[in-house]
Amino acid sequence: MKKSLFFVVAMLLVLSMVLGACVKPIEQTPEPTEEVVVTEPPVEETEEVVVTEEVTEEPVAELGPVLKIGQIGMMSGLMALYGMQQERGFQLGLEYMANGNFDDQGRPIIAGRPVEVIVKDDEGSPEKAVSLAQELIEKDGVEILQGPVSSASAVALTNVALENKIILMIDPAASSFPTGPNFNPYVFRTSRTSFDDTLVIAKYLVENVGPDFAHIYVDNAFGQGSNVALAYAVAKYGGNLIAPVAVPFETTDFTAYIQQAMDSGADNLFLTWSGTGYVTLFQQLTDLGTLDSMTVGTGFGDNASFAAVFGSAVGSTGLNVYHWTVPENPVNDWMVERHLEVFNEYPDLFTAGGFASAIALASALEKTGGDASGDAMIAALEGLTFDGPKGTYYIRPEDHVCEQPMNILKLVNLDPDLDKDGINEYRFFETIYVSEYNELAVPCTLEGEYADRCGDLTVIPAP
């Protein structure tokens, strides 16, 4: 019997001035009735009185020093698309927060300081990410770090943030490790965590399919974090993770790993992957009959991959981090419209994350009066609530996890350009459910000297 397939996954104000013209009245001289000799009287010189209006100009506030932000992402390679989304979202988020205020070089002004973003490509390498971050701090004078795409790079950058007492704002990397076992007070995030990706779907699959899970995941910080989160989420709803299968990122033939999962006897197969390898993985799942023998769950990803990856999945329901058609709020409306104007296409999976990072950092800088020092920013960011493209975001003061809405969507279409206007709208989904920002109760996973910060938050029980 064929199993079900379940997919998780400024305003410019125009002031018009009306100039009134003052016209001196002309006195008409009566026409004389008889000819007279007119003798011109001597003309006395009179001093011309010039009346000037006193013009008062609004005092122009002197700008502070340029604030340099170092943005590290995967701008090339298998996940370059994610790096581009991160960069574009952050750029537009700063523009949004500047609210029309730019310096003479076109840089957005935040809290009285022009902001310059220096973008670096770490190629997904943690070692290169650290080297680039140190160069950005020591040579370029950046005061804040944002990014990266790679969760392994995010973990590595936590030490750079601590050593330099500089804020690291993580997005889009999803591993829970940077705000869990690798936490320090200078590390924040606007990205969701792996727990957001697993909690809702685990409940559905345990209750509707069966309790036993296999998990094929990429063997890096992202996949490892997802494995921890899946085990927690499944157990929370009475299930068991019986076959975790770690797979190297460079893998091109998944046959042996898929077979291992199928031989486990699990009811459900959960997938955690990123990059172009998804296409090959799904093709081989189809070829081996896995989609017929197990219920396979994963996440609805970026727009470009849908036709290749989800060709046989129309009608499926799954989890999604962000899709531009889902949120109904003014921030998302502004971002979508501006993204279309600037880039001639609609925003994608991680555009909202870069945008949210910019809002969070700018909001904190407004609180500090432009002071970007780590200790000042910590106080401004902890407990920060703000409106972003997905809705309400809340940065928990305990572990700096960013609570946010998540989407449950139904895939109803794979044609990216339904109206045939030459621009892909990617209207793939019907919205089934959007969680409240604080609904999922993402657990606190701090360890060691920081474990007590969890306070009253839910924690993962010790094994």
Task: Describe what you observe in this structure.
There is one protein chain. By secondary structure, the chain is an alpha/beta fold. It has two domains: 67-192 and 328-405 and 440-454, 3-Layer(aba) Sandwich (Rossmann fold); 195-326, 3-Layer(aba) Sandwich (Rossmann fold). The chain has twelve helices and 17 strands. The chain has helices spanning 80-98, 126-138, 151-164, 194-208, 221-236, 255-262, 277-287, 290-293, 306-309, 330-343, 351-368, 374-381; strands at 67-73, 109-110, 113-121, 144-146, 167-170, 187-189, 212-218, 240-247, 268-272, 295-297, 299-300, 317-320, 385-388, 391-395, 402-403, 407-411, 429-434. A six-stranded mixed beta sheet has the order 2-3-1-4-5-6, with helices on both faces. Strands 8-7-9-10 form a four-stranded parallel beta sheet, with helices on both faces. The longest helix has 19 residues, at 80-98. The relative contact order is 0.14. The model is unreliable at 8-46 (pLDDT under 50).
